[in-house]
């Protein structure tokens, strides 16, 4: 009888601390390795993915098993998507205009094709087509939250054995691929199509010799580096942003956590009618709070404080998710599931090129919409925004793309996706 595997339990607080450590290690490495900057890989990937590989290797060889308490990761997820809900001002939706509606329609078509592709391959390889849905829009367009919600649903309603495990494993695969693929794909589009970026609109030192006289060398070489790091919510497109201070952050956090609490009640009620991710209720409540304030003038939600809350939650959630990835589960994927996931990856690359970039114009907004689409259509909106942020740090922000991807990827698509999954599950 072999020796028992040493098990180490990481508490929720320790998991958050570890997330910050791996994130800043990734940031440190990225700043010193030019190829990572060229590929625009997120710091969370650079620091967290090798850590997850090491833990998975130790687990496979029976040396060490690390169990993470991801309770606070769930809280970070709820907080992040609640801030997305508070972005759903009718003013902003109006600003998104036809492009936002078209992006939602195109993304819904992608979810349908993901299911159709998965079901076709599953059926051709002799397994239940429902596995194709689980490795389609449930895990990819839906992400971990939708996987956790619909896995038990498929097990109960359709008797699909191991549905939750398959969905979460596929979502894990999708998250890794989305994070690794997004930045380089955006870099390819910018270089191949010679896309004009916000950074390229700065003063040209060749035509204005003294323009960079007092600019640090790093910023002169990379004009976009002189820009402020883009916010998840670039609200300056509509009005002047509030100064960020302690009171502003506390006010924003107060609105967010009230929405999270009330949203839990609403989610419990909605789930009696349709299966939705846990954060939907909080997002709806947040949207109501936001618009009441906008139209009544009694209070103001928008501001720098909300940006801080959102960005911290985004960093914590994404890094914690990567740190705790059970990559060893991918080793045990059945051949049909491997084939489905490879096909889904190829579909995503083609669709991001044809369905997002070319359709929305061969411009910087189109690049960002494609990169963001890869993120939320193969894992989570947070992944897409992380990839977009990495590109924006180098080339400059794209406020309209940030708005559209945030609203569609984290809010509107979840409702449509739930309907598509439920409908195609009856086929």
Automatic annotation (TrEMBL):
The keyword Transmembrane helix applies. GO terms for biological process: L-glutamate transmembrane transport. GO terms for molecular function: glutamate:sodium symporter activity. Coiled coil: none annotated. The lineage of its organism: Bacteria, Bacillati, Bacillota, Negativicutes, Veillonellales. Keywords: Membrane, Transmembrane, Transmembrane helix. The keyword Manganese does not apply. It comes from Veillonella seminalis ACS-216-V-Col6b. This is Sodium/glutamate symporter. GO terms for cellular component: membrane.
């Amino acid at each position: 009888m072999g020796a028992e595997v040493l098990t180490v339990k990481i508490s929720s607080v320790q998991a958050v601390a570890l997330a910050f450590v791996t994130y800043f290690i990734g940031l440190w490495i990225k700043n010193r390795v030019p190829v990572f900057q060229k590929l625009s890989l997120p710091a969370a990937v650079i620091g967290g993915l090798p850590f997850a590989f090491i833990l998975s290797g130790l687990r496979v060889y029976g040396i060490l098993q690390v169990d993470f308490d991801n309770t606070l990761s769930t809280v970070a997820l709820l907080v992040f998507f609640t801030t997305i809900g508070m972005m759903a001002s009718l003013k902003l939706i109006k600003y998104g205009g036809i492009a936002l509606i078209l992006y939602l329609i195109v993304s819904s078509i992608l979810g349908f094709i993901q299911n159709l592709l998965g079901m076709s391959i599953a059926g051709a390889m002799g397994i239940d087509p429902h596995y194709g849905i689980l490795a389609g829009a449930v895990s990819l367009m839906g992400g971990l939250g939708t996987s956790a919600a619909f896995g038990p649903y498929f097990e109960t309603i359709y008797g699909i054995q191991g549905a939750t495990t398959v969905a979460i494993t596929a979502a894990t695969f999708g998250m890794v691929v989305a994070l690794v693929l997004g930045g380089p794909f955006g870099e390819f589009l910018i270089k191949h199509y010679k896309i004009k970026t916000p950074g390229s609109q700065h003063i040209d030192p060749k035509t204005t010799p003294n323009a960079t006289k007092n600019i640090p060398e790093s910023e002169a070489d990379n004009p976009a580096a002189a820009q402020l790091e883009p916010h998840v919510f670039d609200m300056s497109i509509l009005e002047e942003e509030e100064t960020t201070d302690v009171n502003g952050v506390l006010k924003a956090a107060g609105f967010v956590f009230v929405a999270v609490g009330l949203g839990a009640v609403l989610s419990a009620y909605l789930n009696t009618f349709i299966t939705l991710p846990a954060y939907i209720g909080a997002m709806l409540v947040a949207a109501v709070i936001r618009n009441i304030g906008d139209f009544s003038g009694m209070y103001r939600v928008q501001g720098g404080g909300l940006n801080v809350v959102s960005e911290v939650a985004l960093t914590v959630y994404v890094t914690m998710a990567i740190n705790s990835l059970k990559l060893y589960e991918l080793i045990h994927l059945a051949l049909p599931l491997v084939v489905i996931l490879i096909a889904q990856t190829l579909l995503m690359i083609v669709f991001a090129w044809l369905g997002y970039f070319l359709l929305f114009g061969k411009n910087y907004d189109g690049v960002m919409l494609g990169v963001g689409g890869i993120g939320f259509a193969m894992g989570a909106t947070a992944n897409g925004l992380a990839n977009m942020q990495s590109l924006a740090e180098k080339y400059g922000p794209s406020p309209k793309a940030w708005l559209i991807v945030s609203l569609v990827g984290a809010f509107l698509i979840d409702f449509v996706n739930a309907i598509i999954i439920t409908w195609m599950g009856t086929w």
